[in-house]
Amino acid sequence: MEKRHELYRGKAKTVYGTDDPQRLVMHYRDDVSAFDGAKLAKLDRKGETNNRINAYVMGKLAEAGIRTHFVSLLNERESLVKAMTMIPVECVVRNICAGSMAKRYGIEEGTRLSEPIFEFFLKSDALHDPLVNDDHIRVLKWATTAEIAQMKALTHRVNAVLKPLFANAGIDLVDYKLEFGHPLDDPKGDLVLGDEFTPDGCRLWDAKTGEKLDKDRFRRDLGQVIEHYREVGRRIGASL
To answer: Which pLDDT tens digit goes with each residue over 84-142?
Structure first.
């Protein structure tokens, strides 16, 4: 597989084309950002850490029968993935109240929910990823009724796999975001999980102490960000 030109540069990853139009190279950089890019830094070993954690999690989901865009690890910072047409909304599942949900509804952070709460957000940095509902998505043609149902069902399936995976490692999976799309090699088929699953896009707390093990350490200036990312990887069994 020949890596070619840069296609997209996000906040923490760069995507490259290859000699196969249905395959892309996802390169994990050491960049970290928060507050829609208002806070920026570089953290040594972040790229390789997230690349390997993501590969491990995607493998566990694949073992559970959940289709993802992940194909294989290429090297310490790069993975081969399927080219996708993405749905422009993020799916968020919350097992414990934290972050924007706690602020939005005036609920104490750390409140355990009787069942997972699912939310949709429009993927837009310029608009600060606003909360949206099924009608917004359907009427504004960001996704079809069938795709909305699939995103909800797949997100709950992912939660059923990952919540116990992290719990067995002594970690509370507080909340996280997922993104879905259609692979170019199956454009009319069912949705497939895309993007990544790393401590950048979820909240992870030590189950005993409540210590934050995720990007909130960067957002809140708690320090030792990558040390805690790597602790997450070691606990769940990722090869770092």
So the answer is: 999 999 999 999 999 999 999 999 999 999 999 999 999 998 999 999 999 999 999 99
Contacts of 10 (CB under 8 A, 6+ apart): none
On the 0-12 / 13-18 / 19+ scale of CB atoms within 10 A, 13 is: buried
How many Å apart are CA 52 and CA 114, to the nearest integer? 32
Q: What residue has token string 């069902």?
A: 153
Torsion angle of alpha carbons 72, 79, 186, 89, nearest 10°?
A: 130
Please give the DSSP secondary-structure letter assigned to residue 111.
Answer: P
What is the dihedral angle through the alpha carbons of 216, 80, 57, 100, rounded to the nearest 10 degrees?
30
Query: Any alpha helices (H) in the chain, and if so which ranges?
Result: 46-63, 99-105, 134-139, 145-167, 216-219, 225-236
Residue 15's H or E segment, with its range, is: strand 13-18
Coil vs helix vs strand at 3? strand
SS3 75: coil
Write the pLDDT tens digit of every residue in 57-81: 999 999 999 999 999 999 999 999 9
| Nearest CA among 182, 92, 172 for reference residue 143 | 182
Phi, psi for 124 (deg, rounded to 5): -155, 105
Q: Of 130, 125, 144, 136, nearest to 182 (Cα)? A: 144
Predicted TM-score of the model (pTM):
0.96
Number of C-alpha atoms within 13 angstroms, CB side, residue 170?
13
What is each CA distance from 44 to 30, 47, 121, 165, 212, in whole angstroms? 6, 8, 30, 27, 19
